[in-house]
Amino acid sequence: MRKYYAHYNSKEWLFEGARPGRHISTSTVQAIFKHACEKAGIKKEVSAHSPRHLFATHLPESGMNLRYIQEILGHKSSKTTEIYTHVSKANIASIKSPLDTILKEEQI
After folding, report:
1. Which domain range does residue 23 map to?
2. Residues 6+ apart with CB under 8 A from 23
3. Cα-to-chain-centroid distance, residue 68
4. How far apart are CA 3 and CA 23, in angstroms?
5. Phi/psi of residue 16, nearest 5 degrees
6. Non-local CB neighbours of 83 within 8 Å, separated by 6+ positions
7. Whole-model pTM?
């Protein structure tokens, strides 16, 4: 990114479009992303929005508070952010029951 910025040194937009003073179009972003996925050998159907969704999906799994996630993503409604609260099987398996703790203490 530093090399790109040093080379293009755009004043208004990091990724300037074909017309000076304008940003690149959504279709250009999609085309660049699609090309990068092809080069990386990604076969799954993805869009340029996929990395944002993936990032947001892993935040609750790492224990981040939903309100913070809402702020990071810029969602006005917490309902929008709640779609990222998928429950992973690994997280469920790691939950310790208070009953298990009590039973282990009684065995000691």
Report:
1. 1-48
2. 13, 15, 16, 17
3. 14
4. 19
5. -75, 145
6. none
7. 0.59
